Amino acid sequence: MTAPGRRSTTFSRLLRHGFTDPSAAERLLESAELAPVRTDPVLLDALGATADPDLALSGLVRLVEAQDGHTAQRELLDTLIAAKPLRDRLLGVLGASAALADHLARHPSDWQELVTYEPQDLHPGVTEFERGLAAAADPVSLRVAYRRCLLSIAARDVCGTTDLAQTAAELADLATATLRAALAIARGAAPDDAAQCRLAVIAMGKCGGHELNYVSDVDVIFVGEAVEGADERKAVQAASRLASHLMRICSETTVEGSIWPVDANLRPEGRNGPLVRTLSSHLAYYQRWAKTWEFQALLKARPVAGDLELGEEYVATLAPLVWHAAERENFVADVQKMRRRVVENIPAAEIERELKLGPGGLRDVEFAVQLLQLVHGRADTSLRSGTTLDALKALAAGGYVGRADAVQLDEAYRFLRSMEHRIQLYRLRRTHLVPEGDADLRRIGRSLGLRSDPVAALHREWKRHAAVVRRLHEKLFYRPLLDAVAQLAPGESRLSADAARERLVALGYADPAAALRHLEALASGVTRKAAIQRTLLPVLLGWFADSADPDAGLLNFRKVSDALGKTPWYLRLLRDEGAAAENLARVLSAGRLAPDLLMRAPEAVALLGDGDGGGLEPRPRAHLEQEILAGVGRAAGGEQAVTAARGVRRRELFRTAAADIVASYGTEETPAVADQGALVDLVGGAVSDLTAATLAGTLRAVVRDGWGETLPTRFAVIGMGRFGGHELGYGSDADVLFVHEPREGVAEREASQAANAVVSEMRRLLQIPSADPPLLIDADLRPEGKSGPLVRTLKSYEAYYRRWSLVWESQALLRAEFVAGDADLGSRFIELVDPLRYPAEGLGEDAVREIRRLKARMETERMPRGADPTLHTKLGRGGLSDVEWTVQLLQLRHGWVEPGLRTTRTREALAAACAAELISTEDAATLDEAWVLATRVRNAVMLVRGRAGDTFPSGARELAAVGRYLGYGPGHVGELLDDYRRTTRRARAVVEELFYGA
After folding, report:
1. Cα–Cα distance between 604 and 707 in angstroms, integer?
2. What is d(CA 737, CA 826) in angstroms, rounded to the nearest whole number?
3. Whether the Cβ atoms of residue 396 and residue 402 lie closer than 8 Å to each other
4. Which region holds residue 573: left if phi is over 0, alpha if psi is between -120 and 50, else beta?
């Protein structure tokens, strides 16, 4: 009977020692099994020192209960109290691993493996583990022996006898010994197969890198050869049977569970390839077919079992290919894309708990280190370690990584791997997810030495180390480039000039010498400006490298920095506003147009931030017009006024181009916009509104300069073509018609002269050579084309259209929309042409035939000589012209009865035709997809080349930039062209049916 007051004393002692369920712990301590030791303070102190005292006490009671008789129980308890090394080891394991507690309960004599504490037991290697597995003759006994060895590794780990690197190396050595034992069992089961072949087992991944987890797939590659005199085909088949048996021995679940899965999917062709290949077959594959990631994987290759001489020959044969992998086109981009793909495949609900694969996780460190090894390991053999921490240390020693960065990454990697070990050790299950329960987090935190509020402390330390990795893993690649040119820290190891050039070439720089000069100009010195640049550039260089033209990005950044470097807000904007620096990097490296617009007025960089610069959202037409008219009003004369209008146009073109580029590329925080049609509408609407506002301002300037406030004639500008359809691209001319109407009391001749003078002066002012891009006015769609007068009265238009109008003019007028000048006159012009473009009863058959004839003639006569008709965005098969003429024919035939078709916009008209069931949903989607894609290509060409074009660029770098804008990563330009041809081919089939009636 427990005396009054004693329970509360024991209860509080248990709480002080870290028990979370003191009542249950008190009952266990009172059990008969622990009677000899329950009052010994040494036991309670030792339990309180474990990661989970409740778990340790429960496991101890189970272990004592499982002993064979009273004598065995007494031996265990006496040794436990008398021998501190055993006490720390045994209770440490029981408090950290429920799975090993289960093993000890099933095999109660295995605790004696932890008694010995000789120097040779502190750091066992493959030989010692082979000795521990030697008695295993079948899969079941191999599992028991494996767990017995694992018990000793875990004991040294949780007691701090070994550090993270030593524990991971021991686990890899145990895996090596296990693979050898499994192969011996497989050979013993099939001696005839063993006699025919040489089989080498090559460890890959963490096993190959000598840094294995407690529970992990063991990645391997098998190499087989025939013994002398044997048939090669039969020998490879025999080797395959042995390899398969080895995998089953380790992977299959028995009464003792499984050891770990053996994964051979890193072999050539993955799971679709043969399990075993000869060395020559491996070599042929890697020489011809291997992808970049496969060479990255070979960094870890290490012969571990079977014919070690053959294994060493395999590694030696493939090593030259591994160390030349960095010379492959798009090498860095391929590695980074693989990393991004890994992150993208993590379920959204798990990404914040993902210790290995998530942002700031273990894989970020490993990828960064492997990338640097592949770039510099060809010239520097000291970097060729398969172990992440050893390789990181070598990279720092050689100046390839800053020493401070390497120290921080080493600490972060060790902490994150230790967390991973403790998570896996509990149940011996393969997982990289941080658990959510407080009990689990408390156990993990305490096991890592975080005893004061372990849950909060664990979360804090985890997030701190993850943030370090996130901040450094990409900068790791770029910061040493700045150290190499800035030379601020005497005595610090730094990249040699050759190594810096080597790294820049790997990043995709075509002129590394020029890039180093730019970096030196930007980052050298002790000024505040240079210090901020050294902070910004490691990140910017990564974003430049993500583009098709890193050289241009860096050069343009230097130009902008030279122009704005002394402006106090510029570097502050890039440093303090998260979006600004990334947006600028994207814009400067995406092509010529946006940087050219920016260089003419670098202060427009402010638009790229998220502060008071206005952001990248296109401004409404009313606001644009208001600003331009205000600028015109302040100007001293016509030329100065139009200069102000063109300045606004240049700035807003930059805003639109930047918004388009950033939305197309995406940022680290925001993915690329998936709706391509929305991007087309954004650009078309913004540029069309800007053009209309510019024309309105120019018209006001010309009238005021020549006639004061009132022109002798009312004057209106009618947008036509893509301008009227709100579909202008960056390089489009402004298709217009000019209409006027003499004011009361003004002679028609005077009015006509004034109107013509306005048109001439508008065209002149908008094309004066200056820093701002010209705006070309094209009036060729007017009655009689180039032969007719530039401007007509409304009555003249009425008379012409009544007597002479041709069907192509009715078609052209489908795009007519008032854009500037006298709104009433513009409205009456639109009323005039409505009966022409939406004829009552629709088009007659003769008119339909005429439109088809004109289209066929245009296809044959206007296609540029030598152009590929499958890739010409305007006149090619399934291109803009095909889609627009098809939609316009539907408008001409049915617009009189379908109000939705009475629009100047192609996509709106197409949607209305679909809603009216004039075209099937599938056909409408096909035409829309082709039209959007062709428009996006035209926009891309203008952004990349800085001049308009209807065909894909022929240069590889420009074509890659177009592909990048359209969402095709490095090395996928061929897919872009295939997709374009496929999309437009489908559209052409719809055009043949709907337009030509085929």
Report:
1. 35
2. 10
3. yes
4. alpha
